[in-house]
């Protein structure tokens, strides 16, 4: 109190005392605030303020403390039963506005913002409506002070609005100040409710300022602040330009629901035109708030048309859901309350609601949908929806071609929203568009032209289809492992196909969703457009493959949309259309092979007329000049067009597969009859040289199997294998030859595995017939051989999983007996067991003879029934070998006919046939079918040996693999031939390559020589381990393969060499010890000639020799000049019973 009479300064204690007082007041309970206490608290402050004539000159610190204290006091003052004194309320309001309304010039902006923030907080406390315990604030007296153009506080109210609008965009940014300012604007607008003339004067400033703030801040705009700004625009526009209010003022004509109301309005004069202001000659004071007129409405509507749409667009694309919901509220208010006053904003507001009805955030989407359904109860919006739909569809091709992905996405989402909304409201607009009366023939071309698909990713124009097809036949990439294993559900999504004029994937998916929504909204009427597009695709697949591919994509999306409206079984018309689409797509695939010649044709009229001048000329000189013109080079353009057409045909194939799967999802189990033709098309696509088509084929096959009621794609193929084999057989003839036919069989065999081998038994003869007819075509012959190799691989895998027969195991054991060194103790033991077995066998035979003796008449007097005679004949006949299985018959048939191609002119086919024979050997040998295998090998042996002398290294490798397989599985039968025929050729191969001098094996792991050496060592290892050969041949092997033990060679070659020498050590360890030791120089004497100083084989030699002994092997120098052999000692431990 002592300093309250002194004016506050920057150094005075006023601000500190006020801050201390405010902290004390915060501790007081609510019940303590009485009118007396409140007057006591503000008395020192009011005394100080009376000492200052200009409140704006007060220090910032004092004003901040004063505003905070007053805000605290007012918050309790307005809640007491007597309420706040109107005079004090008015004075505080005027003081606050006058204190900060003119600030900001020449002062610190940071301090000024704090003062403004506290001032806005005080104004909010003074003006914000509040109701508590029956106490209403502001009171009616306060309301009257701001009602009417001549109200006492109207200037203060306008100053407050100006202050709040100025603070809405603080510089530097101050989010709290901005939030408080926008909130105060909305509070102040509440005091002007019902005063249209006054609101009309503040509408332009508020809308312009809020729009400028929203658009200027952009992404930096906070979501809650943007929502408040949109709310301020909504409040001022709807309060000023409400249709009902303008109708009462006579600015808008009244509405009449029937003729009686129209007559009454005519009698009252309501039909007269609104009066327009006329100039007056009498001198009257100018009204600051003139009444609203039609001209004002027209002018304001034009200004708002350029201001509000950008605001709605900015809020619609904002990241905050609060801003997007504010856009929903503003758009709904403009349509619901101002659609007559502001008709030009109706399309923009309706577009905003429709776009936000597709929002990803559920609250925003649900809010927009609820408001749209509420608005659609008004019939006048049906026309606006149709106009939006028409303009969006007509403008879509232009937007797509302009490569504006954002606008394309918005247009697609708009059409999707309209389709969804109209379908729920029972509108027939979409059905009319897609139906017979929609003139699809007119707008389809422009739509397909802009929806052209781009080249698939990874697509290369340099792919050689024939070469790639051959690779797929021999590789394993046609059928994914997931499909072979049959695990997991079918994949739901195909690889994304990018549109040529739409870069963003989200935009392309929005267009796909748009087509599905149109199909769902059109219903069965949309089947007409589907039929048109599928016929368009079939008719234009050659001349316009790009538009044909786009048409199939449109068909798929529309068909999916039509089917999505039915939860259960689709209607008959939809199912009929699905069958028609599937048949058309299969027919297009069948015709593709016949139309291959079209790729080389170019029917470009411009090319035909390239040399003809488009002008009129006379005279020889002019004609000569024209002839001298250099014709334009059209080769580059023609090549580009050809590559583009090829890429589009690839896309057409991929989309046809996905559309077939869509048809299967609609038909369900009823799709099974269509598999008669569709399954071949899908399996043929698995052998496409393009990765995209194979990927689509794999997914489509799984989806078709799932939708058709099969447990897996393997079951689907097994159930329809006869149909596929029949189609393949037809396409292996002269009339319908297809390079994909053999690959279809390969895909089937790899997909199903061993169960399918007996079912394709009959096709083997047709394959060999085709080989006889078309062996000159390398790619086709390679694919045919790949079928046979795949069959053999499947059978070999099945054979490897089973144990060899008992007879085969016994034969192998007998053959191995000759490889083991003599063991007298073991041999005499076996002899004793054999002797006992012979005695038991003799006693068993005697007992059987005695039992068979007939007890009764003998000779011609014996009576023997017919059954007994047959049983006797059967017993007398010895048991033969079991009949071969169908798989073994197939293997024997393939092996018997493959030998003729060992002398084919193509080295690739020779190598493949050798590989086929190598794979077929274990199939027959493991099953004990040596009788079927060995005659074929006997006939083909000269050709196999000739291939060891072949000049192509990879053919030699395959021939060595055949010999290795023979040694492994039937070594006991081919031992002499291997020793006499095969090994000399292998030894010659090693010598002619000059491996030691040229160090070829040390040059790389991916050379042909590397693979050849691996094959030769594998063959030699099997010879050493399985074949009973002479010791001289083993000695030659030990010497020939020593360079491969060099530690400087490739690790793979070293490992194979170690395995080979380990097998040789098991056969003759002493000889191997001599060879390795003499090579290193540790064994001298008569073996010194084996010394090779350039070879570093010590480490690998130790590995070989250490495998048979405990610990590491160390070679000691030994002189073997006079060897002495110990006398063998035999001990007979077995006891024999010779009785």
From TrEMBL:
One Gene Ontology cellular component: cytoplasm
UniProt-recorded name of the protein: Armadillo-type protein
PANTHER family membership: TEL2 INTERACTING PROTEIN 1 TTI1 FAMILY MEMBER, TELO2-INTERACTING PROTEIN 1 HOMOLOG
InterPro entries for the chain: ARM-like (IPR011989), ARM-type_fold (IPR016024), TELO2-interacting_protein_1 (IPR052587), TPR_TTI1_C (IPR057567), TPR_TTI1_N (IPR057566), TTI1_rpt (IPR049362)
Region of interest: Disordered: 265-287, 860-887, 1108-1139
Domain TTI1 C-terminal TPR: residue ranges: 787-1073
Record field: compositional bias (Acidic residues): 866-878, 1108-1120, 1128-1139
Organism (species): Cutaneotrichosporon cavernicola
Pfam families with a match to the protein in the record: TPR_TTI1_2nd, TPR_TTI1_C, TPR_TTI1_N, TTI1
Gene3D superfamilies found in the cross-reference section: Leucine-rich Repeat Variant
Domain TTI1 N-terminal TPR: 18-360
